[in-house]
């Protein structure tokens, strides 16, 4: 009985500690890679593009340049208990 209770408790704990969010993976012109929020968090594509350029400037010593983003529906699962 105790074993079933702890198994159910563990499954419920994993369920509640899972984080799922939409985001993108990006790569700046100077080679820095990371993950951030996706375009759905912005009013329009222009604001999203400006945000990506700000990331580029922050990671590449204030220089603007080409920044690639490779996925607009990334999902991350965090099973921290």
From TrEMBL:
It comes from the Bacteria. This is Uncharacterized protein. It comes from Tannerella forsythia. The lineage of its organism: Bacteria, Pseudomonadati, Bacteroidota, Bacteroidia, Bacteroidales.
């Amino acid at each position: 009985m105790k074993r079933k209770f702890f198994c159910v408790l563990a499954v419920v704990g994993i369920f509640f500690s899972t984080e799922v969010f939409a985001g993108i993976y990006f790569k700046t012109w100077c080679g820095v890679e990371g993950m951030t929020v996706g375009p759905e968090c912005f009013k329009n594509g222009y604001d999203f593009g400006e945000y990506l350029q700000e990331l580029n400037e922050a990671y590449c010593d204030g220089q603007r340049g080409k920044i690639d983003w490779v996925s607009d529906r990334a999902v991350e699962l965090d099973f921290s208990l």
